[in-house]
Amino acid sequence: MKRFAACLVMVVGLVFAVSAKPSVNAKNIVLLQPDKVTSVRCPNVNSLAGYIKSIFAVFENFNFDDDASGNGMVAFAVRPGFKSKVWFDFSDGLVDYENELEQKLLKIKPCEVQGGVFLFAIPIAVNSELSGKNVPMPAEWKEYLENYGDGIEISEMIDAIWPPYVSDEEKSEILTLIEKFRKETDFSTKSLNKYSRIIDFASASDAVLVSISAKWWPEEISNSRYGDLFLLSFICGSLESQLKNGNDENATVDGINFELMKYQQLKKKDKKVNFEFFEDMQ
Question: Quick check: 236 and 181 in contact, CB under 8 A?
């Protein structure tokens, strides 16, 4: 945690030099996950710094009433695909501003995240001292912990409160690309690169699961010149099944069937191609 935070401070140091309105104090962030989690899920520190800079700008430019007074923390959750959610842990003097602040904060494009939810919080005070809290406790979090115990890891709690999901836009984009690849018969590296978005989505998303074991990925395929083609094919088959059925269970059979379909296309182009793995399935 200390190493990640130190790196972050170096990158966003210029942000802190920008003075907020005298009545607003919101200049620090609190990471809510261990360094081994944050450094993996949010590896692009520059992206995070830009996101935080935009958040600070909202607080600095927000139209709090002159007599507003209070403090608290705002908790942020970011998922792959630039999805974000916020929760407020405010004292009574700031509660009335939550809805408007939420609307403004959710309009900001979040930082790049991969593999799971990324969590942090920002302490804030308006015409007041900071609360001194180290961890936010929004009402929704508190209610969940009261019902399910306080031994749960914070990422698991957020997954329960705000589950991973694939947006309609993402779903349409990926399924369209998969359908295009289904009809693709140019298997050159240049052509396959056109579908890299599919692989990026599969590896970064926390709402789908794609994995292939050695049993279904023999060396005769993985080490061949067509290894990339069949890996992409398996990913497409598994992803397509999950996105259409609305689940996150690895669809091995669908992945292999997609591979077999592409193998048949390949054989029409190159009759010398012969993989025992696929021949035994026909």
Answer: yes
Spatial contact of 171 and 132, defined as CB atoms under 8 Å apart? no
Token pair belonging to 276: 């025992």
Nearest to 77 by CA among 111, 44, 47: 111
- Could you list the beta-strand ranges (E) of the chain: 24-25, 30-31, 70-79, 83-90, 118-126
Q: Residue 128 above 80 pLDDT?
A: yes
The answer for residues whose C-beta is within 8 angstroms of residue 64's C-beta and 6 or more apart is 23, 24, 97, 126, 127
- The DSSP result for 134-184, as a single string, is SS---HHHHHHHHHH-S-S-HHHHHHHHS-----HHHHHHHHHHHHHHHH-
Residues 6+ apart with CB under 8 A from 11: 45, 46, 48, 49
CA gap 135, 239 in Å, rounded:
37
Residues 6+ apart with CB under 8 A from 116: 37, 41, 79, 80, 155, 164, 206
Cβ proximity of 204 and 115 under 8 Å? yes
Contact call for residues 40 and 33 (beta carbons, < 8 A): no
- DSSP one-letter code for 206: S
pLDDT tens across 192-205, in order?
Answer: 999 999 999 999 99
Contact 250, 211 (CB under 8 A): yes
pLDDT for 23: 83
Amino acid at 81: G
